[in-house]
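hey m, so remember when u said the tokens were messed up on ur end? i reran from scratch. heres the input so u can diff it against urs
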Amino acid sequence: MTLTVIVASDFTNFIGRFHPVLVHAPIGFLLIAALLEAGRRMGKISVSESTVTFILFWSAVSATFACFAGYMLSLGGGYDEKLLSDHMWQGIGVAAFAWIAWLLKSEFFQNSKTLLAKFYFPAFCLATILTMTAGHDGGSLTHGEGYLTQYTPEPFRSLAGMDPIKKEISGIQPIADIQQALVYQDIVQPILEMKCVQCHNEKKQKGDLRVDQFVSLQKGGKEGPVFIPGKGAESSMITRCLLPEDDDDHMPPKGKPQLSTDQITLISWWIDQGAPVDKKVSDIKVTEQIKTALAGLGSSGGASKSELPKSAESAIAKLTVSEPSEKDIEALRKAGLLVNRLSQDQNLIEVSAVNAANFGDAQISLLLPLAEQITWLKLGKTKITDAGLKEVSKLKNLTRLHLEHTAVGDAGLANLKSLKYLEYLNLVDTKVSDRGLKNVADNKSVKSVYVWGSAVSDSAIAVVTSKYPGLVITNGLNKELMARFAQKNDTLTSK
């Protein structure tokens, strides 16, 4: 069992989050002391008693601070009680036996030659062993049970009586027939497995929430249900994903793999249809924007072309360009950009600034030597502005452009009219207004536009959609609902 002496607060959360940093100190000190002690006893090295005593002292001090911070961290909840209790007492054991080993190694006991001095080595060994077991349980608490042994290879796995390695879900498997796919089991659950289960499972339940099974997901967490059947845009599962990534309420947390716009769209659609657990795609309403999101899930031999939106076939499907220069690619990588080849035959590439938040107008010229090869460009959450879009417009084969959470506005979008292959445009949380949307719609190649959190009005969307029926405009969460969600959070915080 765990002890509850202090109530969780901002202060305890602040101190607690230093635990992963502090916990490495006693591990290092004890392992160094163990190596020195082993080398000294085997006659391999010459080291003074005072050196080992000094290291043991700091191992005990750092273990004590790590225990204190760990306790503060545990107050936030969301951990398996038994595993947390085991980890806590093992950590306390590390600190306690480290202090005992230091005390018995001190000059007072060593010089007195008392019987107690003989307990130094057992105490030291126990502290070292508990460091390893506590580390194992700590890894399980953070990353899930069996984290450290998850990839144990054969034949050691069989000898230890462990189950075969469970294959991780790294992506939604291609669906042979989208129309016959179960919406929850084949589409929604795999997304949750990829992006949410790590923190919300049987052993680790942040916010008292589990999403690894439908019954637990339906139950919700400590703040109540996470989805409202029929109201996707008002469900916290969706609203939390659409908050700025540095917001404390944003999910998944900053630094974790984030849900894509299409994945959020699919989950919201499932909730809008009543969150059915046993219905197929063919059983519920599928809008044009959902068809766009579903198109990426089909296999090449699956759903017929008539079942998929026209946007599933890219205008550059048969385009072949020259081989990109490795020197130019390396220049992008040095700037923090990720570069991936999309097709060896076509020589087309994707450039992403997901790890380069400071990338902006000053560096945009680095893209120009590869203007022919770049077809997917992800500049979301960067410093790009309208001025930078003038240079982006020179990427003549661009088909997908991510500008979400940037400062771009209507003036910048006017520069994109020349992109004759542009099909997908993400303008979530930008300064784009109705005028910018109309300019985008005038580009007949554009098929999908996302405008959540922008200044685009519902009336403008209705006008543009009626004029261009083939254009899919997704505005899943308007400002009114965002304000309502923010107000709800403020209320919960005040309580």
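this time it looks ok to me. The chain has a mean pLDDT of 82. if urs says something different then somethings off w ur setup not the seq
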